[in-house]
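Quick one before lunch.
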Amino acid sequence: MKLRLTEEETAFREELRTFFTTKVPEEYRAAIALGKHVGKDGIVHTQQILNAAGLAVPNWPVEWGGRDWTPLQRHIWHEEMQLACVPPPLAFNATMIGPVIANFGSQQLKERFLPATANLDIWWCQGFSEPNAGSDLASLTTRAVRDGDDWIVNGQKTWTTLGQYADWIFCLVRTDPEAERKQKGISMLLFPMDSPGVTIRPIELIDGGFEVNEVFFSDVRVPGDLLVGEENAGWSYAKFLLGNERVGVAPVAATKRALAGVKQHAEETGALADPVLAARIVELENELLALDLTALRVVAHSADGKPHPASSVLKLKGTELQQAVSELAVDVAGPLSLSTGSDTVPEWAALAAPTYLNLRKASIYGGSNEIQRQIIAGTILGL
Ligand SMILES: Cc1cc2nc3c(=O)[nH]c(=O)nc-3n(C[C@H](O)[C@H](O)[C@H](O)COP(=O)(O)OP(=O)(O)OC[C@H]3O[C@@H](n4cnc5c(N)ncnc54)[C@H](O)[C@@H]3O)c2cc1C
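Model of the flavin-adenine dinucleotide complex:
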């Protein structure tokens, strides 16, 4: 495998680095560097800056704002964005529903939604999981029944991330309960979150934050032309979307940046003098390097816009390392990580414990790590 960048690729990297570090407001980048949130406005504003420069949705077809980049260029774009602490384009828009509409939607859906989705004029949320349909997603029971040209939707979704900000939801619904396989009776519908009959209820997470929700549908009327692709073919669109989601949830460069920060704090506090802690840092650095190479391998072998099955390795290992670095940060902060509301405790130390707690989610969402192990066993190892 060729690992050295060509002159053009190096220039491409430099160009992106300059853009990200000079055009994206410093206040957002500083917040991300500390592991803080930039809020809805920060995410929207950043995506609009990126979109205006053709940097928000490079993975889309060129016709809809994509760039005809090589997988390696896309990888560099992603990496530089993370290294510069740029709030990334909203995944629900950029890597989930956008590519699905571009690949499977009608011309009318494409024209109506793709420009607004790229520019984050519409904030999407993902309505897939239900109380008894997470890993076993095909068991979902939210029903959509025909009423003339419309659909009437009833049911419940859960864990709907940032649904409180969302304008629209892309939703999996059961349209044929009689289908011989449960995967065959599912469709994908799009509808506004302020449709009559949609109720949203926040769920508080272990770190005290509110980023996920329960969403209830009671006789929600959805016009027939908001069906994506074919009726009862939603499962294949969902699989396409979930493959893309896995590639996006292994933030290798961001984890490297977080580890470099922890190392620096360990040096400042004197914790680095402990050989056991120093060895943990070195081990994580090596594991991240190995994951970086795996990411390049996935990039090199993804074909026709479809992720390589090794994307499951990225998801699994990427989230394990992300969690390990957050744990290390708590150990370096020591008792300071338990402080709340103190002016004398450095911000990084005060954020260590909430970040550690928040990142427990990473091994669950985007397909739990146990499920990734099964995919790896079946599709890569052939077990
Ligand atoms: C923070 C967060 C945000 C999320 N955001 C969204 C969102 O925006 N939209 C959305 O639709 N969903 C979202 N999800 C849902 C997420 O995709 C599901 O939580 C996930 O698929 C796991 O499903 P579950 O929670 O029903 O757990 P279950 O499937 O009930 O799993 C429970 C445990 O059993 C294990 N398990 C289950 N089946 C198997 C098996 N066959 N073999 C081995 N082990 C197994 C799991 O790995 C897990 O450890 C989010 C979840 C979280 C935590």
